[in-house]
Amino acid sequence: MAAKKSTRDQRVKSTKKTDAANAKSTKAKPAAPTGAAATALASKPAEGRPSTRWTFLTNHAHVLIVLHAEPDLVLREVAVRVGITERAVQRIVQDLEDEGFIRREKIGRKNHYEVLTDQPLRHPIEAHRDIGDVLKLITG
To answer: Where is this region: Disordered (predicted)?
Structure first.
């Protein structure tokens, strides 16, 4: 019976220590900003990284815009500029090539990308416009 009691006592002591530690850790945390301060922080991206909030254009559009501006850029750099992984950019470039939005030409060890600006947009709402219209709107 003594062994049973000491085990129960150890559990009670352990629980009290955990409760005390939790109380200390909650007191040490600063209050989260609210109102305008919270909105400003939420909309401010981390240093050198794009905002994690949603955007109107997809990553496919972002890759297309970057490659249109700099057709000889390596995909690693495209990934940095768009804020996604290099592997994601590779998949997107393959999608764009398969669907006829870009043409890839191998020049030595590098690729040159040509955006086919006369291709219509895919969704019925915007099908009356082409890729060139979007690029003009974004790049000016």
So the answer is: 1-51
**Res 42: pLDDT:** 44
For residues 113 and 97, what is the distance between their CA atoms, to the nearest angstrom?
Answer: 10
Helix (H) or strand (E) holding 111: strand 110-115
Flag whether the pTM goes above 0.70.
Answer: no
Whole-number Å distance between alpha carbons of 82 and 65: 10
C-alpha dihedral (40, 43, 46, 51), degrees to nearest 10: 180
Q: Which of 120, 136, 118 is nearest to 128 (CA)?
A: 120
Question: 59-139 maps to which CATH number?
Answer: 1.10.10.10
Count CB neighbours of 5 within 10 A. Answer: 9
Reported as a single tens digit per residue, the pLDDT across 72-128 is: 999 999 999 999 999 999 999 999 999 999 999 999 999 999 999 999 999 999 999
What spatial distance separates the first Cα and last Cα of the chain, rounded to whole Å?
A: 84
The residue among 42, 59, 60, 56 whose CA lies nearest residue 97 is 60
Question: pLDDT at residue 20 above 60?
Answer: no
